Amino acid sequence: MRQGIEVCRSRPGHPRENPRHERMQPPLKATAARPPCLTASGQQRGFGEFVHWMNMDRRREALGMRCLADVCVASPTDWQSRPAEPEYPGQWQVRRVRRKGEVIGGGMAFTTTALHGELVGLEEILDGIWRLSYRRTTLRFLDLRSRSPRVMAEPEAEELLEGIEGRGMSDARK
Fold first, then answer.
1. CA 149 to chain centre
2. Looking at the predicted structure, is the pLDDT value of residue 32 above 70?
3. Cα–Cα distance measured from residue 96 to residue 101, given in angstroms and rounded to the nearest whole number
4. Is residue 127 part of a domain?
5. Which domain holds residue 49?
6. Rounded to whole angstroms, how far apart are CA atoms 92 and 122?
7. Radius of gyration of the chain (CA)
């Protein structure tokens, strides 16, 4: 995400939403995980073999029976060893994620330890309901109307937002 790569999520337990990943699992397990290697370097070799097979050897009908290496080109975007800090709109509150994954914004709310030290943006989308975002990705919705912040599940936040005239979830995600 620091490099500008957008996250594509599917709902847990819904493999039809992203079937390519589901089809990848059996060969990945067979090549790199079953049986597991006794050492980390041996396990890494198995993953390396799988990556080579997927990119260099495996022919795909959708690509005219070519492999990925035949059609892929280098990204025009350079890797940034130190990407710029994210910028958020002026009306948003900006907070740095603490070591244990918490964000302070009207109380303490957990986001993820993976973002320790990163700046996140908080946008109040309704009175006491906040969207927590990292760069261009919505992470959570927070209900700060009570003493302790409550993380809202997306369907719950969607229901709340759709209940307000003229403002559905798609507007609130922008």
1. 22
2. yes
3. 10
4. yes
5. 15-71
6. 5
7. 21
Give me the amino acid identity at 143: D
Residue with tokens 């009570």: 146
Residue 43 belongs to some domain of the structure: yes
The tally of domains found in the chain comes to: 2
Q: Note whether 28 and 50 are within 8 A (CB).
A: yes
Cβ-based neighbours of 60, under 8 Å, separated by 6 or more: 66, 67, 68
User: What does the alpha-carbon distance between residue 66 and residue 74 come to, in Å, rounded to a whole number?
Assistant: 17
Residue partners of 80: CB distance under 8 A and separation at least 6: 2, 3
Structure-block tokens of residue 82:
């130190």
In one letter, which amino acid is 92? W
Report whether pLDDT(168) > 50.
Answer: no
Question: For residue 3, is it within any domain?
Answer: no
Same domain, yes or no: 61 and 106: no
The pTM is what? 0.64
Which pLDDT value is given to residue 13? 67
**List of residues 6+ apart from 79 with CB closer than 8 A:** 3
For residue 64, the number of C-alpha atoms closer than 13 Å in the C-beta half-sphere is 3
Is 107 among the domain residues?
A: yes
